[in-house]
Design a protein that fits this description.
By secondary structure, this protein is of the alpha/beta class. The protein has a single domain, classed as Dihydrofolate Reductase, subunit A. It has a nine-stranded mixed β-sheet with strand order 5-4-3-2-6-1-7-9-8. Strand 8 and strand 9 form a beta hairpin. It starts with a helix and ends in a 5-residue tail after the last strand. Bound molecules: NADP nicotinamide-adenine-dinucleotide phosphate. The site of NADP nicotinamide-adenine-dinucleotide phosphate (NAP) has 28 residues, from strand 1, helix 3 and helix 7.
Length: about 240
Amino acid sequence: MRSARVKRERRGGSRMPRPFVAVTFAMTADGKITTKKYTAVDFTSREDKAHLIRQRALGDAVLIGHSTLERDNVRLGIPREELRKERRARGQSEYPLRVIVSNAGRFTPALNIFQTDFAPILIFSTTRMPGPVQKQLREKATLHLSDSPEVDLCWMLQQLRCDYGVKYVACEGGPSLFRSLLELELVDQLNLTVAPLVFGGRMAPTLTGANFDFLPRSVRGSLRDMKVVGNECFLTYRFTRRRS
Ligand SMILES: NC(=O)c1ccc[n+]([C@@H]2O[C@H](COP(=O)([O-])OP(=O)(O)OC[C@H]3O[C@@H](n4cnc5c(N)ncnc54)[C@H](OP(=O)(O)O)[C@@H]3O)[C@@H](O)[C@H]2O)c1
């Protein structure tokens, strides 16, 4: 009985409520999301960048993996006033909470995000985070550090729902975090932009990273929306939650 419950909870099937999770990515026509060196490559249009911000603006929280934060050095703001106005009209705060996940916690405190205070920053990590980093980040962010070697993503989402009132998470990857969320069946929607490029390269990561293993189970989505703007295709897939 107990092991069935633990398995169900690991797959995101616990009865504790969690937010809706929508993940946004852009990929090339051959399914690559960056180069093999994981450099911050700019391969999409202005329309796609505006699309990403619109998706972010829907969230009560925006969620990002540590590596993407370090590599892209994003602040996770909403530059357009009209989107912030729409949020206020929906009863949301002006900006989403900014949530970062990291197991090792080796953050660079000089990152742009830590120089801004327009929205709270929550970091879900472990007690492996080095002491001096903890000290510096406590001035800028709320730290949730667990004793276990890895962050329990299901628990994290439940905390966001129960303690912070987050009903909608706009996740901006990256691929390792997306894979972890998929493995736990914690993704409800995928917003995918297909850009008209082909990178090639066996080692360049796809949506689920450079991990060549199959997922424990294939995740089947249904296509909810498709728009073509210029040479890019904007797709929206929904994944249904499996009954446990
Ligand atoms: N094309 C796109 O739409 C798009 C979108 C996003 C990112 N990217 C690109 O993707 C690249 C980064 O890829 P990535 O896979 O390295 O990045 P990532 O998924 O953002 O970050 C991976 C890191 O996040 C933390 N993490 C992942 N799963 C976790 C879990 N279950 N629990 C706790 N922490 C977890 C770990 O941090 P620690 O190592 O600190 O433990 C892990 O090393 C960058 O080049 C970025 O530009 C592209």
